[in-house]
DNA sequence: GTGAAAGCGCTAACAA
DNA sequence: TTGTTAGCGCTTTCAC
């Protein structure tokens, strides 16, 4: 049997309440008794049981994190931002991978509630009605990180994907390609993908072009699918000389796909990515890309959650962080 | 107030015990009553409270995971392996980043115990005596993943780092360089680093060379430090024409550091990495490297932990997984 | 097959 | 400043 608060109380000749007070830093304890208690805690090697504490206080100081895939270079960066802020506010994280599988997502949300998390951070491409329903009946605060809920009803932290994609596409247009190619990994129902797409389309239309479906290539987030996209592009006759890729990892694949066929980037064709993961500087040529502050999105989402958990006032529950474009060497200098 | 097992019992005209039985799939319940209970659970929207359950049963079905940095491409892959097997055995994961900071590590271990995890998976470079002491008094099973405890007293899953480094170095020697350079990120007290180093040294000695300290370069795990190492190498006069780098990410830095100065890999100088992270195929030339099965290490470590948690018999508590070397294009073909 | 009741280890009134 | 006591929501004997 482990040593409990009761053992400490008995050995220190005080009540459980007093022990509880010193453990919780309650100031209403005479310094002398505090010291006495602290000593016997030390002596017995007492370690508070967080589960019992959670049952009694209805607070677990842990938050749930549902993430598509922690091994993704994009999401793991987000997760780090979440954990750092969580640690700062004395929370721990229960982390689960969903693989963007709807059933699993719904099941995980439920598991998190069963485990009595004090809050939930959710990441995932598609926020369906079922998601919204389950999330809206949540017993605890929820915040979305890098995932947009079209109904705008759940707190979230994002960048403006539409404008970001518009700007990336426009950069390419200004550099001389009237209808850049778009390589995307469209998930069904993904509001993020939708917004990137519509930013892309808007840029094309503003350049007085009508959108050519042939120039929109479906890939699947992987590096390899980027390489395949490159091949597909080279097989077109008279293809546009610029491509906008919706994630950095695929963009690396596109670049290498070109290079492997002897096509030079950016001389023969330009490439811009999205996210600015660490990969962007780990290629040659270095990748021009849209900077999405992943760590910050995670950190801010967690901070937002703490505000809800502490009933602090929040001004704006749908935070939009700034983005920008870094021009590196995969696009032509002006 | 939430709906509890007591509410369900009352509404279904049975005892709490019976409700508990159906919730836990205990067969000793008449099908009719089971159905009745299930119906009222559904009707009331009852959701078991895992915290209360944990307090009563002394099992939380969650395991702690202490990891140096989840945003690392190496560790996030390990974490994925851990979570997948955890999910398979119905556990959740409490994940915390330690940054390999000893105080934080020790504190985190304690927090995990307070939270009453059923087991603990630990990753970290240095297993000091303090670590061993704290881990040995653990109330629950522990397993180390990709981290070696020199005292060999804690269950672990690893590859043989000494042999792996020996083989990588030997490959370079056989390709014609008698004393390859070694770029490492030596942590103090890191048994893994130590073993890699000693494999490297053994290979050099077997080639009848004495080790030249000048050819051992300290970096810090980062891509940038790899680039700096490359520069340092190019500044040596008459440097060896092969370098063994102790992680893939640094190896990419080394390759690009060379290329940025117009030095060709592998024609002018060969490079081999370590780990075989996804990065290894995302460079040009693709990286020859030591394959460390990161996902599997995580998965096996978690599986090992489940065995301990279920009191299954385990034959070997220090598992050594196979490794191999993939020769890609950063080394010369035979 | 089902129920009664005693905890699990702690917090949080409330009293003193 | 300190102690008493009633739960928190569940599991788990032990009876029946």
UniProtKB/TrEMBL annotation, chains A, B:
The keyword Ribosomal protein does not apply. Signal peptide: none annotated. Residues 3-57 form the HTH lacI-type domain. GO terms for molecular function: DNA-binding transcription factor activity; transcription cis-regulatory region binding. Keywords: Activator, DNA-binding, Repressor, Transcription, Transcription regulation. It comes from the Bacteria. PROSITE patterns: HTH_LACI_1, HTH_LACI_2. Transmembrane segments: none annotated. Pfam families: LacI, Peripla_BP_3. Global transcriptional regulator of carbon catabolite repression (CCR) and carbon catabolite activation (CCA), which ensures optimal energy usage under diverse conditions. This is Catabolite control protein A. It comes from Gracilibacillus halophilus YIM-C55.5.
């Amino acid at each position: 049997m482990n040593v409990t608060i009761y053992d400490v109380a008995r050995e220190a000749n005080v009540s459980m309440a007093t022990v509880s007070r010193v453990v919780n830093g309650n100031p209403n304890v005479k310094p002398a008794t505090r010291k006495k208690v602290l000593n016997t805690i030390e002596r017995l090697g007492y370690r508070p049981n967080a589960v019992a504490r959670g049952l009694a206080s209805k607070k677990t100081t842990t938050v749930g994190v549902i993430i598509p895939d922690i091994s993704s270079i994009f999401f793991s960066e987000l997760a780090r931002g979440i954990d750092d802020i969580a640690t700062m506010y004395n929370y721990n994280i229960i982390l689960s991978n969903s693989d963007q599988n709807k059933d699993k997502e719904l099941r995980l949300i439920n598991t998190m509630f069963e485990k009595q998390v004090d809050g939930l951070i959710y990441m995932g491409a598609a926020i369906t009605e079922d998601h919204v329903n389950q999330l809206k009946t949540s017993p605890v605060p929820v915040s979305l990180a890098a995932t947009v809920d079209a109904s705008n009803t759940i707190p979230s932290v994002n960048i403006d994907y539409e404008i970001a994609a518009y700007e990336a596409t426009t950069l390419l247009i200004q550099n001389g390609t009237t209808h850049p190619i778009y390589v995307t990994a469209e998930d069904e129902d993904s509001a993020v993908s939708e917004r990137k797409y519509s930013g892309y389309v808007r840029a094309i239309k503003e350049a007085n072009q009508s959108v050519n479906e042939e120039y929109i290539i479906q890939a699947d987030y992987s590096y390899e699918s980027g390489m395949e996209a490159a091949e597909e592009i080279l097989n077109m006759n008279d293809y546009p000389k610029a491509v906008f890729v919706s994630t950095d990892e695929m963009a690396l694949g596109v670049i290498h796909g070109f290079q492997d066929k002897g096509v030079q980037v950016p001389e023969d064709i330009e490439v811009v990515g999205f996210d600015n993961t660490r990969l962007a500087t780990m290629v040659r040529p270095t990748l021009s890309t849209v900077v999405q502050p992943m760590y910050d999105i995670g950190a801010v989402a967690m901070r937002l959650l703490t505000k809800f958990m502490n009933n602090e006032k929040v001004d704006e529950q749908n935070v939009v962080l700034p983005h920008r474009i870094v021009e590196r060497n995969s696009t032509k200098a002006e």
